[in-house]
């Protein structure tokens, strides 16, 4: 497909353009249709699949699919158990499961061959489409801010509003009034840096992965037979390596979610 | 890389997904797995119990078997003893019977012999008297010599 572009710049620029829907006057009222649609479809597919088997789950001898679902369940449950000490089954563990599976599936969209997807969508008249919702900073920020609000919610719920504010001023350096400002600034930075690092880590990894896939694909488009052969090898190599990144980033995102939520549950 | 309304849409999606998982996905899975754990634990406990009771039963069986063996050998030895006693008794009885029969027979024989002797004696006496009568005829008076004749017949 790269042949139809006049320059590599245009090729990459086009592939990194979102399918935007303007629903208001200001630039804020823009909706990245591709991110939203893909993430919703993946959310329904993934959690729907798990739900379909969870609904029929028996304590009898499990079917292979149920065993697979239980494998995921046990993996996540064990990870949460190691970090979070409390009633994890009421919220934290299922939230961790949602985060892990959903982020994993969204990351995994990177494996779809970029230009083949672009061609197929082109037949339907869609020319700007990005498959990977987690390579959209809006998505990762949405997730991180969701976790951030949960963090504050649980902080207040567990310690009470007074306890939470007390902690803002009296931890980590102590409760002397002289260190109140230092404590407060420290906590403020922590509260700002948590969602930033949480979301940008995922976004950076997935965005970079996507760009590298584009660069490899471009090699095929703009440099003849030798370039195509090279891009096949490189593309395969990068895709295989990307399996690790996709899984690892989903895992890291889930673990950070659990860690932040368990920090909110535990007082200093 | 602009932040805009997409963020809010994605956050809503995220919230709905978490709610869905908390409400509908996690509990049945947890339930199934915990039930299975319980069932397995129960099964293991039952197996252990069964094993223990089997061991007890085996122990009891050997005990009963040992008791039965002891008793049977006791019965056998008793029976042997009784049998030898019976044989001994029978021998004794037979011996006394035999002795008695022999004694009876002996006494009978003695009687017969005596009787025969008596008869013989009487016959000899009469024969002798007859012979003497025939030899002496008139010279001997049976009455006058009966004492001598009797003495003679006794000596025979």
SSE inventory with pairings:
The complex is a heterodimer of chains A (268) and B (156).
Chain A: H1 8-15, E1 20-22, E2 30-32, H2 33-55, H3 64-83, H4 92-108, H5 114-123, H6 137-170, H7 180-222, H8 224-265
Antiparallel strand pairs in A: 1-2
Helix pairs in contact in A: 1-7, 2-4, 3-4, 4-8, 6-7, 6-8, 7-8
Chain B: H1 5-136, H2 146-155
Give a concise summary.
The complex is a heterodimer of chains A (268) and B (156). Chain A has 268 residues and is mainly alpha-helical.
Written overview of the protein:
The complex is a heterodimer of chains A (268) and B (156). Chain A has helices at 8-15, 33-55, 64-83, 92-108, 114-123, 137-170, 180-222, 224-265; strands at residues 20-22, 30-32. Chain A is mostly helical. The N and C termini of chain A lie far apart (57 Å). Chain B is 91% helix and 0% strand. Chain B starts with a helix and ends with a helix. Chain B has one domain (5-155). By secondary structure, chain B is mainly alpha-helical. Chain B is rod-shaped and about 195 Å long. The interface between A and B is large, with 47 and 35 residues.
List keywords for this structure.
heterodimer, A: 268 residues, mainly alpha, two-stranded antiparallel sheet, 2 strands, 74% helix, B: 156 residues, 2 helices, 91% helix, 0% strand, rod-shaped
Mean pLDDT of chain B: 88
Care to count the β-strands of chain A? 2
Mean pLDDT of chain A: 87
Total of domains of chain A: 1
Major sheet of chain A: 2 strands, antiparallel
Tell me the major beta sheet of chain B. Answer: none
Strand order of the largest sheet of chain A: 1-2
Count structural domains of chain B: 1
């Amino acid at each position: 497909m790269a042949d139809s572009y006049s320059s590599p710049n245009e090729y990459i620029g086009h592939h990194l353009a979102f399918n935007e829907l303007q629903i208001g006057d200001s630039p804020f009222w823009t909706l990245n249709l591709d991110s939203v649609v893909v993430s919703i479809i993946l959310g329904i597919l993934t959690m729907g699949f798990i739900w379909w088997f969870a609904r029929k789950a028996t304590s009898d001898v499990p079917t292979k699919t149920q065993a697979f679902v239980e494998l995921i369940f046990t993996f996540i449950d064990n990870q949460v158990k190691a970090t979070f000490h409390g009633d994890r089954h009421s919220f934290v563990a299922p939230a961790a499961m949602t985060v892990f599976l959903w982020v994993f599936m969204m990351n995994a969209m990177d494996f779809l061959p970029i230009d083949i997807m672009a061609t197929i969508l082109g037949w339907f008249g869609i020319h700007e489409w990005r498959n990977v919702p987690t390579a959209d900073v809006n998505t990762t920020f949405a997730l991180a801010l969701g976790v951030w609000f949960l963090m504050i919610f649980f902080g207040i719920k567990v310690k009470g509003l007074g306890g939470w504010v007390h902690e803002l001023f009296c931890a980590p350096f102590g409760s002397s009034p002289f260190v109140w400002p230092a404590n407060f600034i420290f906590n403020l930075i922590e509260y700002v840096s948590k969602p930033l690092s949480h979301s940008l880590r995922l976004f950076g990894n997935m965005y970079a992965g996507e760009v590298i896939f584009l660069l490899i694909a471009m090699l095929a488009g703009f440099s003849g037979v030798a370039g195509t052969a090279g891009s096949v090898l490189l593309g395969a190599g990068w895709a295989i390596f990307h399996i690790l990144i996709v899984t690892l980033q989903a895992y890291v995102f889930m673990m950070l979610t659990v860690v932040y939520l368990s920090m909110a549950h535990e007082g200093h | 890389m602009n932040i805009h309304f997409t963020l809010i849409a994605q956050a809503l999606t995220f919230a709905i997904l978490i709610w869905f998982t908390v409400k509908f996905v996690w509990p049945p899975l947890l339930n199934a797995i915990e039930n299975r754990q319980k069932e397995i634990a129960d099964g293991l406990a039952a197996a252990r119990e069964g094993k223990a009771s089997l061991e007890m039963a085996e122990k009891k069986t050997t005990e009963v078997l040992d008791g039965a063996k002891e008793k049977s050998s006791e019965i056998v030895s008793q029976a042997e003893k009784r049998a030898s006693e019976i044989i001994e008794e029978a021998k004794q009885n037979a011996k006394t019977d035999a002795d008695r029969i022999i004694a009876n027979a002996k006494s009978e024989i003695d009687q017969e012999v005596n009787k025969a002797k008596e008869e013989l004696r009487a016959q000899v006496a009469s024969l002798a008297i007859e012979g003497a009568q025939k030899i002496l005829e008139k010279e001997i008076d049976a009455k006058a010599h009966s004492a001598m004749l009797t003495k003679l017949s006794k000596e025979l």
